[in-house]
Amino acid sequence: MNDKGNDKVKNIYKESEDKVSIEKDLVPVGLENVEIQPGFWFDRIQLVRDKIIPYQWSVLNDHVARTEQSGAIRNFRIALGEETGQFYGRPFQDSDVAKWLEAVGYTLTGNPMPELEKLADQVIDLIGRVQEPDGYLDTYFTIDRRDQRWTNVRDMHELYCAGHLIEAAVAYYQATGKRKILDIVCRLADHIGSVFGPEPGKKKGYPGHEEIELALVKLYHTTGEKRYLDLGKFFIDERGKLPRFFDGEAEALGEPKPYGPTGGKYTYEYNQSHKPVREQDVAVGHAVRATYLYSAMADLARETGDMSLAETCQKLWKNVTGKQMYLTGSIGSSAFGEAFSFDYDLPNDTTYGETCAAIGLVFWAQRMQQMDLNGKYGDAMERALYNGILSGISLDGTKYFYVNPLEVWPESCEKRNDKSRVAPNRQGWFVCACCPPNIARLFASFRGYMYSRNSEGIFIHHYANSSVNFDISGQGVALHQNTNYPWDGNVEVGVSLETPVEFTLGLRIPGWCRNYELKINGSAIDIRNMIRRGYARIRRTWTPGDKITLDLAMPVERIRANPALRADAGKVAIQRGPLVYCLEEIDNGPILADISLPKDALLKARFDGDFLGGMVTITGEGSRTDESSVGPELYTTSEYVRKTRDITAVPYFAWNNRGPGEMLVWIRET
Amino acid sequence: MNDKGNDKVKNIYKESEDKVSIEKDLVPVGLENVEIQPGFWFDRIQLVRDKIIPYQWSVLNDHVARTEQSGAIRNFRIALGEETGQFYGRPFQDSDVAKWLEAVGYTLTGNPMPELEKLADQVIDLIGRVQEPDGYLDTYFTIDRRDQRWTNVRDMHELYCAGHLIEAAVAYYQATGKRKILDIVCRLADHIGSVFGPEPGKKKGYPGHEEIELALVKLYHTTGEKRYLDLGKFFIDERGKLPRFFDGEAEALGEPKPYGPTGGKYTYEYNQSHKPVREQDVAVGHAVRATYLYSAMADLARETGDMSLAETCQKLWKNVTGKQMYLTGSIGSSAFGEAFSFDYDLPNDTTYGETCAAIGLVFWAQRMQQMDLNGKYGDAMERALYNGILSGISLDGTKYFYVNPLEVWPESCEKRNDKSRVAPNRQGWFVCACCPPNIARLFASFRGYMYSRNSEGIFIHHYANSSVNFDISGQGVALHQNTNYPWDGNVEVGVSLETPVEFTLGLRIPGWCRNYELKINGSAIDIRNMIRRGYARIRRTWTPGDKITLDLAMPVERIRANPALRADAGKVAIQRGPLVYCLEEIDNGPILADISLPKDALLKARFDGDFLGGMVTITGEGSRTDESSVGPELYTTSEYVRKTRDITAVPYFAWNNRGPGEMLVWIRET
After folding, report:
1. Could you give the CA distance from residue B54 to residue A102 in angstroms, rounded to a whole number?
2. With contacts defined as CB-CB under 8 Å, which chain A residues touch B594?
3. Which H helix or E strand runs over A621?
4. What is the distance between the alpha carbons of residues B583 and B654, in angstroms, rounded to a whole number?
5. Does A252 contact chain B (CB < 8 Å)?
6. Separation of alpha carbons B168 and B178, rounded Å
7. Which residues have a Cβ under 8 Å from the Cβ of A372 and sit 6 or more positions away?
């Protein structure tokens, strides 16, 4: 095997840090051209289709007992006068329906399901009937609050809900070709464009919760109507200008000073409106809002060739992934404001790490990748996907984590108020239910994140059993991935085409991988000099039946944190391939903090077909206090006797699927 | 030197754990019979007299700028109609004046200060004039809320304020012999006895914040009036009975259910009224309330010979000191409710550890000691006094910590909401200003905690330069302590008497001490068999000029925590004698979490006369990450290079006297 070596890894990163690029002709290969085949992601996508979408539909209709009520569909009926009652839930309750519909759209793409499509059409009909004559669409205001429309975009999520509906419409239109929902959101977007904009008499505002900006870019791509791109750009450019639009709103509402989000509970950092976006270089505030904003900024930089915006995105990316991201790809370490706190402040047990924020990181990473092709974006996406996002959902698809801690002591979560936001068990639904449908739409669209192409060729970002079709020089080409990823690092890529054709095949060499080997048709190729910006770029004339074999060595690794990350001092985390591992009480007994890992302890990985449907678990010799040396004393001058004790680590994402208990990612090294 | 050995230590504790005793004839030697002489405590008591009492008087009169306002004296003037305005501050603002007056009383005992006494008399005159004809005394209600008297004793602190005034009165009366304030509080106590009590028509209530119970025992001792003891016992016995008195109050006030302290914000565990006191075996709720309650319970057990109460006290003591106490003697690890959380939950950086709660532990320990003479109580008192209480005040006496963390990262305290209660710097005063005058009254009465006596002889609980007078078999005896404690463990005790007399001299052998030597008139005595329940009990016929020399070896010790205390896993704390040490950023650079202490590193203690007025500091060879091995990466598979780095530890109580910065008690051991 080639040894990429540490220097080489650093070089790849250095290259990218020096200069951000805008690769204008790189585009993702759409869902319709990718088919996921049986394997790790296939199982999860099936779960979305067969279980999560029906389950969430039941919840949205309040048909699931023993969990938080949603009221989301009922709100639409109340808005129409078909049911009586009051609006139920958060002002952004509509967005749960939109995200569900978006997941349905992705699920139906290339996969007809007439019953589900019929249901979705009924939902679209319901949505269409709620739309007001001027295009306005938001049940929170249509029910009882018509006079308050557009009076508090800082807190009331009207633009956020519109954004989600636009994303749903684009997904459903692309899946089915049916224009109805697309027409609905175009009318809505045009209505918004009549309220907000640079023209005299229009509001110089922008949303308190970013989302519509990236949605408008999607709507522009789908319709070709540049006014949607312009409106998205307007929202981005207005943000943070002085005098502050939100202060004008607050004054008009008669709010007491100091003004700020949620009636002054938060500062304007909370929604990233503290200064113009191009002056921002440290990620602050509500982490989901931040990533949705940064996603739109990357979109716009790419669309408009705006290098100042691209450079801002790069600075923010460096700050988030270099100073504010958990090893699991979770971000936003503070429960107060669901927010970024500050550099290197990543406590493991009092974290937040909202599932939606890690999903937002994936959205942003994809756009950074499209703009500035570099393996580091795929690395971060992978880190979040396989760890801090997958942890957000139970293996059976019906329970969710909103907060994703790296260390849990259940009794402490229950009894300490400062850990009250850290649930020790996944829940069936939430009062604020943003995360479950966000997972559904992400998984359902996962295959859209796997490949990109440009005039040069095709790039594989993620490894999973799948086929992809694209054409190059006028000829159709198909690639077939065959892999057991993430359980092992062997990836076979078969090339199907009719006649030989020259193109570049780019394969992301993951940042976690230090040794790899590539063969074409059985012959090893030295690809060290073919790696640029994290991708092995193999340019050749491919012939029918060519087979590439990439072998990414996947040893068990001990990860160490930068010393400035105080919470992880003296500790290591176990990682294998893209997966972070953790200790659970069920395997290792209580008081996990007592366990240490000797520096010389061998850690062995083994695929266990019986473990939660088949997973690689890791075992090794840890160290524990010998109970016989422990007395009742709370403090002592004695040294406790340590003894060897076998430990078992399991994939972090799989924790809490075997009942409640302690969990620990960062383990003391001795 | 004799080696007490670990077994011996355990034996001492075992002995006491088996059976609690009630030593009815043991009494503290009063302040009037103890004189503190120049040394560690002398300096602090002088500070109380010369700086803290005048400073706090200024604050109570709102004469100190740049700090929280008090309004406490002004409230009395408003109550009299001599000033206009509204009551300012918390409902218990009066208690700040009472605690100040109590500190004055202790300060004047055996130490005439005519100016201060005149000022105190004026305050007493002011208090007396506010007292209502029926004996009621509480400015919060007298100003504007007369109709609400005694309607919400759960939250409104009327009985708490009365308790503090009684304690002040007893102290001032004992200092000066002037009855005026004693008469005032007797009228107040009699008024309370007319409102609360077992007789028909009286309220079957008890205070939301315990305090009056222990005060009534003091009033009983001072006046000999048994009705005050009975009323204190009534409050203790009623507590936690069903139906709950507080629920009746809440219903009468029209509060929404569920009822609970602070309008249902807390459960009844908060004020220890969740069940009858004799059924309580785990410390719960607000830690100051708890210790004041337990203090009164110990008082009453001793006064009434109530073994069930004594056993309850013992169980609670075991729970607090064995499972819920920081190494610094701080207790109450949860900011929410300023409360105990649960066993072994002692986080270092998100702690509470209120100064008042550690003071409450001292009050309770003293009463346990009087009831059940055992060195473990003195050990805990000493732990709290020299660490978690002394830390509460700056060396100049004008700045205070309310919360006493064992690990501080200032940026994190400022930026993380879940650490918002942990101040990285002492403050001049507080909105809720319980702690500063509590420190003042404790220090001013410290000499009252040093000695106890019974018919057998005298017991020395604490070591400090002082003289004590007592009489035995009709003859006056004086002991003279000469020591540099806590900086070294050498204690000389000289005996002054006219003719030889037989009595027991008990010397507490601190729990931290493993090697000691005792000489009488220069001859070593083997005292191992004379130690019972933590005291070396030397019974002999003492002759004029006898000199005892106790040498308590004070090596630097590494302390380890019980493995169940997860926050301290793999860490050691440095302790020398009674003092816990800490690392500060000013000596050791930032990122203290990066520092580790090799197991074989020698730690040297040295008295540094220039360090903050003269203290023992500790130095040794620690280990740190070599900065040259640290790159920009947040996570890495590389091992960072460690290098040797001298570290300096300073007494925990002295931290934050040289500017802001990180602080750390528990250090990783490698």
Report:
1. 70
2. 563, 566, 569
3. strand A615-625
4. 11
5. no
6. 12
7. A16, A20, A21, A22, A23, A310, A314
**Testing the interface with A: which of B286, B635, B668 to mutate, by most A Cβ within 10 A?**
B635
Residue A189 main-chain phi, psi, to 5 deg = -65, -40
- Token pair listed for B121: 């008399």
Tokens 């070599």 correspond to B626
| Alpha helices, H only, B589-669 | none
Residue found under tokens 């691209």: A310
Mean pLDDT of A484-496: 98
* Closest C-alpha among A402, A266, A399, A396 to residue A336: A266
A565/B634 touch (CB, cutoff 8 Å), yes or no: yes
User: What is the reported pTM?
Assistant: 0.95
Tokens, residue A446: 């996962």
With vertex at residue A288, the alpha carbon angle to CA A283 and CA A289, rounded to the nearest 5 degrees, is: 70
Residue A348's SS3 state is coil
569-588 in chain B: CB under 8 A from chain A: 569-570, 573
Do B566 and A630 make contact, defined as CB atoms within 8 angstroms?
A: no
The nearest CA of chain A is from the CA of B177 a distance in Å of 45
pLDDT band for position A13 (50/70/90)?
A: very low
As a 3-state breakdown, chain A gives helix, strand, coil percent values, each rounded to 5, of 40, 20, 40
Name the amino acid, one letter, at B193.
G
Query: Least CB-CB distance to A638: which of B6, B415, B625?
Result: B6
Q: What is the pLDDT of residue A432?
A: 84
* Interface list for A 387-416 with B (CB within 8 A): 409, 411-412, 415-416
Confidence of residue A18 (pLDDT cuts 50, 70, 90): low
Q: Tell me if B416 and A323 make a contact (CB, 8 A cut-off).
A: no
**E strands present in A193-315:** 285-286
Nearest-CA distance A648 → chain B (Å) = 19
pLDDT digits (tens, 9 = 90+) for A517-568: 999 999 999 998 899 999 999 999 999 999 999 999 999 999 999 999 999 9
Helix/strand/coil for B98: helix
* Confidence bin at B200 (pLDDT 50/70/90): very high
Q: Rounded to an integer, what is the distance from CA A274 to the centroid of its chain?
A: 25
Q: Are B563 and A591 in contact (CB under 8 A)?
A: yes
Reported as a single tens digit per residue, the pLDDT across B592-643 is: 999 999 999 999 999 999 999 999 999 999 999 999 999 999 999 999 999 9
> Which amino acid is present at A665?
V
Pairing of strands B27-28, B515-520: unpaired
pLDDT digits (tens, 9 = 90+) for A616-665: 999 999 999 999 999 999 999 999 999 999 999 999 999 999 999 999 99
Contact B638/A at CB under 8 A: yes
- In single-letter form, the type of residue at position A253 comes to L
Give B210→chain A minimum CA distance, Å: 23
Longest Cα pair distance anywhere in chain A, in angstroms?
A: 79
Q: How many CA atoms lie within 13 A of A26 on its CB side?
A: 23
Nearest to B518 by CA among B501, B486, B499, B540: B540
Longest dimension (CA), chain B: 79
Cα B552 from chain centroid (whole Å)? 24
Average pLDDT over residues B279-290: 98
Tokens 């290792």 sit at which residue? A588
Q: Is A186 left (phi over 0), alpha (psi -120 to 50) or beta?
A: alpha
Query: How many residues would you count in chain A?
Result: 670
| Structural tokens at position A267 | 């500062």
**Angstrom distances, CA of residue A49 to CA of A175, A631, B197:** 14, 54, 69
Cβ <8 Å between B557 and A637: yes
Catalytic position from the list B413, B434, B513, B582: B434
- Alpha-carbon dihedral A288, A294, A297, A301, rounded to 10 degrees: -150
